[in-house]
Amino acid sequence: MVPTQLQQAALAAHRFGLGEADLDVVGGDARGWLLAQIGPADSQRGSPLPGLSQALAVQIEARRQPGAAGNTALRNQVLADIRARLQTAASTERPFAERLALFWSNHFTVSLGKGSSTGLVGAFEREAIRPHIAGRFADLLMAATTHPAMLRYLDNFLSAGPQSRVVQRLQRRSALQQAASAQAGEMATPVAPAPPRRSGLNENLARELLELHTLGVAGGGGAFGPWGGYGQADVTALAAVLTGWRGPRPGEAAAGNAADDAFDAFDANWHQPGAKTVLGRSYAEGPQALRQVVDDLSRHPSTARFIATKLVRHLVADQPPPALVARVAQRFSQSEGDLKAVYASLLAAPEAWQPQPAKLKTPEEFVISSARLLRLGDRLTARAPDAGLSALGQRPHAASSPAGWPDSAADWLGPEAVWQRMAWAVQVAERLGGNLDARALAQASLGPLLSQASRQQIERAADGAQALTLLLMAPEFQRR
Amino acid sequence: MTSDHPLRRRTLLRAALGLGALAPLGGLSLAGQAAPGGPRLVLMLLRGGLDGLGAVPALGDPAFAEARGALGRYAQPPLPLDNLFALHPALAGLHTRWGAGELLVLHATGLGYRDRSHFDAQQVLESGGERPFALNTGWLGRALAGGHNKGMAFQSAVPLALRGHAEVDTWAPSARPEPAPDLVDRLQRLYADDPALAAALARARALRGDRPGDMRGGMPGDMPGGMPGNMPGGAAAMAGMAAPAAGGRSAPAALARQAAAFLAKPDGPQIAVLEMGGWDSHANQVADPGPWANNLRQLDAALAALHEGLSTPAAGDTWRRTVVLVVTEFGRTVAINGTQGSDHGSGSVAFALGGAVRGGRVIADWPGLAPTQRHDGRDLRITTDLRALFKTVLVQHLGLPAARVAGEVLPGSASLPLLDLLRG
């Protein structure tokens, strides 16, 4: 069934965008409205928002100074980043681009739950993700992988090649110490020297780079696969390729030079010497190897399939239609990961425009779309920087694992989830419901998506606050 | 016979039924009726890959010290179990259960799946399948299917382990005031054409009719609608590891207390599922105090809270009828890695504790720790299939027919042995 022009506008606004108060904003050419938005994401609202160097300086200062001042500065930075994220989403006039920025931030999750990346997530999104959402996938992948926030979150800044200069030096030093104490006649029984703190490989980033960011888990994918194609040896070899990628040196970070966010992320002293073989190809020693691996991974057929599946799942259905996934994957491969072409192919697919809202909004999508419906703008974060998202189970920037937040209703829809959304809606509606007409709002925003039954329920509400609550909790608003 | 005696309470239930429709909120919830006096099962999922060899070191193995290096050296003396094994010093509460004969340790155990992906391994762990995504329901969900017993999860969403059965409740504390009954009724009508939302709402309502005590205070350490007050310091303490799944430092113990309160009720759930994250210790596992050791302390506190809550006078003999399983999706490398931690591995440890457990023993077909004895030269080898533990609990504790367990609840488990786990 081909959707009408008004239905298309509603779907463009709510499914592909982040929600609109008035469908007039979309106009008569829904697909054109969306296509015109494809490009790098806007600069975020709120200023000044720190780049990585400045953000890292604040984090390091907080650790150096256990006590109020440093911690407060870090905490304020974290909250400013969260506010910026939510306020930007609540106000943007390019909501499709914003949605894609949020999608890729989740795909390349860096979380504040780990001390090494606390305070850096905002800078990561601003520098590694937002500028690259509509270019080539390989460029986005390289930026995300080598950004110091990611290098810290997945421990790569601690990873050293076992034969790297740094490790060799430490081993020589501890051997000398042991020889010296033996010579001095100390200790009849030899004491094992304290192991050097940074003595070898950490596989965390390598594994997630393959499993979560590009090829997908080996043997996975089901109807959408095959994904993967890598083995343990590839993980280890890729970890060796990644050694040396650490981020700014302590001196650079402490200087916190906000005017110059260029940094030398690669330190050859930590890099594992020699060639490495990843997925059957050999890569020479040195920093250029990573870019080559990134390009090769971006061209791998599993990557096309894995990324296509995630995109279709995000924009169309929890159970992505396999034929659509296959077409999007093919577009990805043919265009060599040109994300703009990939998005266009998705927007051209009839499956993406089926009129019944199906995808359940995540808590963040629910909150953002409510803010846009009610034109809250910056008031969204006036009472709490996270707009109440912690209580809804999705604290911003705080995904509990590198896999990020899940993207299907089964993961979000428990009895408590509904109850908490209702409690959130009641709070908002009690403040605003008396001053607006929820029926008119429902009509202007949801238009043809609103069912007759829901319209009636809203019309029969006991008062303005209740009517607004019912609108926010209606199935047509909880889904997109 | 006190007025709380299960028999008298059932009589009250029947009388209430006779009085006609109950109010939608308040009043007794009638979803499922577990046999009062029946077995109770708690599954505690440790997500991230617990280093079993670190939690239960094989000190008596001559190869242990060299194999583990700094990972095998502890800030305080480990707590002895038997000639071969000990407990990490942070697990003092568990050690007390050991002394009481209520803790059984299963070592060198794991799943048939070996590719070391968290997400796939957790899928196998919870689904009970032999390969990732072979099954998309949970082994506990299938165990409950078609019966009168209930399952309950202590988080916002239903974990895979419990999926596949309609009667699963979830419970997570909320800091906000309760919405008016009128609104809730209207919402239920609004969801007339959306079965998923309708079902979720209906169960949330039933749960509130049933909720013991007043739990509207929110989670300790959380600010309503905002960040936890201890954030930066707590985050710094987590350097090198992913944070635990629930917010707030005491969250696992608080949820365990809630679980115990529900399980102790005669018409409470038969099965509860809890979980904890933060076990993926690629870096900084050695420090104590440190993030990994502190996580063990939180686990110990949660298990102690379960024991306490199920042993109160009001709980009657619930603890004696309870088995708590603590499992993880895989273990970690025997040797320390380059960042004072350990990478993904294979064999790990599982705990079974409870009054129904014949404890004070370690079950382990110990494979040894020399490099040639390790799986892929790096991991503790698996010598007991973890599903044998599940099978034993399903057949001998929950009393499911063996044919049903082998056929549909844990397909492919027919050849697995039953472990010597339970009392009596």
Indicate the topology:
The complex is a heterodimer of chains A (480) and B (424).
Chain A lengths: L4 H12 L13 H6 L16 H13 L3 H24 L3 H13 L13 H9 L7 H10 L1 H6 L11 H19 L20 H11 L17 H11 L7 H6 L20 E3 L2 E3 L4 H12 L1 H15 L6 H13 L4 H9 L15 H11 L35 H4 L2 H18 L5 H9 L5 H8 L4 H10 L1 H4 L2
Antiparallel strand pairs in A: 1-2
Chain B lengths: L5 H13 L21 E7 L5 H4 L8 H5 L10 E2 L5 E2 L4 H8 L3 E8 L7 H10 L11 H6 L6 E3 L14 E3 L10 H10 L4 H16 L20 H7 L13 H14 L6 E6 L14 H21 L10 E7 L19 E6 L7 E3 L20 E2 H12 L4 H8 L15
Parallel strand pairs in B: 1-7, 1-8, 4-10, 4-11, 5-6, 5-7
Antiparallel strand pairs in B: 2-3, 4-9, 8-9
Helix pairs in contact in B: 7-8, 10-11
What does this structure look like?
The complex is a heterodimer of chains A (480) and B (424). Chain A is mainly α and 480 residues long. Chain A has 23 helices and two strands. In chain A, strands 1-2 form a two-stranded antiparallel ribbon. In chain A, helix 3 (52-64) runs antiparallel to helix 4, helix 15 (322-334) packs antiparallel against helix 16 (339-347) and helix 19 (415-432) packs antiparallel against helix 22 (464-473). Chain A is globular and about 90 Å long. By secondary structure, chain B is an alpha/beta fold. Chain B folds into two domains: 29-177 and 218-409, 3-Layer(aba) Sandwich (Alkaline Phosphatase, subunit A), CATH 3.40.720; 180-215, no CATH class. Chain B has 13 helices and eleven strands. Chain B has helices at residues 6-18, 52-55, 64-68, 92-99, 118-127, 139-144, 181-190, 195-210, 231-237, 251-264, 291-311, 386-397, 402-409, and strands at residues 40-46, 79-80, 86-87, 103-110, 151-153, 168-170, 271-276, 322-328, 348-353, 361-363, 384-385. Chain B is globular. In chain B, 55% of the residues are buried. Residues 1-33 and 210-250 of chain B have low confidence and may be disordered. Chains A and B meet through helix 4, helix 10, helix 18, helix 19 and helix 21 of A and helix 5, helix 7, helix 8 and helix 9 of B.
